[in-house]
Amino acid sequence: MTTIVFFFLIFFPYITLIGNQKACQAQELDCPHLEQSALEERVSDLTTSWGNIPISTAEVVAFFPAGLACGFVTVTSQLQGLMRLRQAITRQVNNCDNPMDVTLIAPLLIDQKQSFVDQILGGIVLLFPALMVFYSINLIFVSLGALKEKLPYSQDIWFYRIVYFLSALLVLYGLLKTGVNIYRTRAIEDH
After folding, report:
1. Higher per-residue pLDDT: 44 or 59
2. Which of 24, 52, 57, 94 is most exposed, with minimal Cβ within 10 Å?
3. What is the DSSP track for the chain?
4. Cα dihedral angle (69, 173, 112, 80), rounded to 10 degrees?
């Protein structure tokens, strides 16, 4: 939920402002200065028990897809662990004479015994962060040059392209492994 709030309150407005300013400068118009005061202070004024966080909004926006991809892989690996647990419980229950509903012991986000609507909602919950990663990478690529100018340090554009490529690979890996485990779970429960 925090990711969605961050996306709509900081990431998307910041990228939009940078893109609008770059488009205005490309048309050689008298462009207003980028309104940084409110957006820049949103992240740099966050305080913790250690003090203020020494990171700019541009840095947070630049590495948002990578952080979201790492979080997605972490959550999907936990889901895969639950699927393996459910597979083991299903095997044990199938070996016993006492039939039991395994879905009550080890419920999953996407379960074939749930209603069709619940399966669709579980799929949306699983796919939404992955789609946010790809959409944010696309938005950043559109204005990567302008975003790079706002960063307090100088990195080659290839650095960011590699970070975003690895982020996309992490998300695809998480989706693929989850899909394989869903298929295995269904195959075990059908027998």
Report:
1. 59
2. 52
3. -HHHHHIIIIIHHHHHHHHHHHHHHHTT--PPPP--HHHHHHHHT-EETTEE----HHHHHHTHHHHHHHHHHHHHHHHHHHHHHHHHHHHHHHHSSS---HHHHS--SS-TTS-HHHHHHHHHHHHHHHHHHHHHHHHHHHTHHHHHHHSSS---HHHHHHHHHHHHHHHHHHHHHHHHHHHHHHHHHH-
4. -80
Token pair listed for 36:
């940084």
Cβ–Cβ < 8 Å for 126, 110: yes
Within 10 Å of residue 179's Cβ, how many Cβ atoms? 13
Using CA atoms, how far residue 189 sits from 90, 93, 123, 128, in Å, is: 7, 10, 19, 27
The pLDDT of residue 72: 92
pLDDT band at 39 (very low <50, low <70, confident <90, very high): low
